[in-house]
Specification:
Layout: E1 10-16, E2 23-24, E3 29-34, E4 39-43, E5 48-53, E6 60-62, E7 68-71, E8 104-105, H1 120-124, H2 127-135, H3 154-162, E9 170-171, E10 176-177, H4 182-185, H5 202-217, E11 220-228, H6 230-245, H7 252-266, E12 272-275, E13 278-281, E14 287-289, E15 291-293, E16 296-298, E17 301-302, H8 310-325, E18 339-342, E19 362-366, E20 370-376, E21 379-393, H9 399-414
């Protein structure tokens, strides 16, 4: 199981792309994993034959656990001893190439060196686990960790909370009661004859947890503005072929993103976060772009978006969206966002009321862009119109501040400077 990021301690095997007995080339996709940060296809660390699979689909194991074994080409699968150690200890370095071939564990890029000891807290739990513990007022020291080296895993702490391990109290920093587990809040579900029961995917579980945490954390309020896209539509049609020659698609999202990052420079509270009694005004504008996948939603981040022009933003958004759908993102590319844009209008929605992507304080929803009758100078005209919705955290962002930001975004789109394209 590969180490997909410093804060990631475990991963779930979602799908085996190869089966036992299949030949596999080096860097060919071998299996698909899901972690707390990202889903990804993992390439084979070596060429050969997949001779054994130690971890089944749906199982979660610590990083560096042996999940399968690759043997040299031509070996008989039946002659290989099955791999039984799910959480195997780190193995020694591979022998020189002159020695007899040995099977290669398919994990974090082949044989791994012994990991350096970490500080007690990090060795015991991941940042995700500590965040959950903080939200539910749980002392991690009370939990018996089942992970590698006694590490407390996400399953450990969620199981502890579901058994009533959290202590109701008042968080002095946010002045709100500690949240009860979701499983205890919802009424029992009565199943009817013929109902189909399907376990939640790992991604669906993570989305559910993140959304519930966000609703419990932020005081969600919304402002909706109607925007005239006629000007940017004219610019887009004039510049579309030029952008395509540069390897980019000039979309309405390109214009919205450019205007948004410019406005975030002037309205710094929208590009901020709350940390207890402190406000963090972000130095960088890291723009999250929500991408719908077949099994859920992921938000890759365009880092340093405020430093890019319209062409640079177009290329970056296209790149992260395509790699998100291909499951080629790294954990760092879905982390560190300071503001998010989501586009329910792609599916025809007039507007949406999106949930804030924690720890951000605002999110912009883009509604369907279509021709509508509007009144201009006391006459009815046809214009390309659409709604923009800002969801914001009223703990930090006041309505007047949110509306000033949205008015700025609306003006920027309707009077877009063609020299910026």
């Amino acid at each position: 199981m590969p180490q997909m990021g410093e804060s990631i301690a475990e991963g779930t095997i979602v799908r085996w792309i190869k089966k036992v007995g299949d030949a596999v080339d080096r860097d060919e996709p071998l299996f698909e994993i899901s972690t707390d940060k990202v889903d990804a296809e993992i390439p084979s660390p070596a060429a050969g034959v997949l001779v054994a699979i130690a971890v089944k689909e749906g199982e979660t194991v610590p990083v560096n656990s042996v999940v399968a074994t690759i043997g040299v080409a031509g070996e008989q699968v039946a002659a290989q001893a099955p791999v039984t150690a799910v959480a195997a200890a780190p193995v020694a370095a591979a022998p020189p190439s002159t020695a007899a071939p040995v099977p290669v564990p398919a994990g974090a890029g082949g044989p791994v060196a012994a990991a350096a000891p970490e500080d007690g807290e990090r060795q015991k739990s991941s940042p995700l686990v500590r965040r959950i513990a903080k939200e539910h007022n749980v002392d991690i020291g009370r939990i018996h960790g089942t992970g590698l080296g006694g590490r407390v895993t996400k399953q450990d702490i969620l199981g502890f909370i579901e058994k009533g391990g959290s202590t109701p109290s008042i968080d002095s920093r946010s002045a709100r009661p500690a949240s009860a587990p979701l499983a205890q809040d919802q009424p029992p579900v009565v199943r009817g004859a013929g109902d189909q029961v399907v376990p939640m995917s790992v991604m669906r579980k993570k989305i559910a947890e993140h959304m519930v945490v966000s609703k419990r954390t932020s005081a969600h309020v919304y402002s909706v503005f109607e925007v005239n896209y006629s000007r940017v539509d004219q610019i887009r049609k004039a510049k579309k072929e030029e952008y395509e020659r540069s390897g980019a698609r000039l979309t309405f999202t390109s214009f919205i993103a450019k205007v948004v990052v410019d406005c975030l420079r002037r309205h710094k509270v929208i590009n901020a976060s709350i940390d207890g009694d402190n406000i963090i005004y972000r130095a960088d504008i890291n723009l999250g772009i929500a991408v719908a996948l077949e099994q859920g939603l992921i938000v890759p981040v365009v880092k340093a978006a405020g430093e890019k022009n319209t062409l640079g933003l177009s290329k970056a958004i296209q790149d992260v969206a395509e790699r998100a759908r291909a499951k080629k993102l790294s954990p760092e590319e879905v982390h560190g966002g300071t503001f998010t844009i989501t586009n329910p209008g792609n599916f025809g929605a007039q507007f949406g009321l999106p949930i804030i992507n924690q720890p951000q304080v605002a999110i912009l929803g883009v509604g369907a862009i279509e021709k509508r009758p509007v009144v201009i100078d006391d006459a009815i005209a046809i214009r390309l119109m659409g709604f923009l919705t800002l969801g914001y955290d009223h703990r930090l962002v006041d309505g007047a501040v949110a509306d000033q930001f949205m008015a700025d975004v609306k003006k920027g789109i309707e009077t877009f400077d063609s020299s910026q394209v």
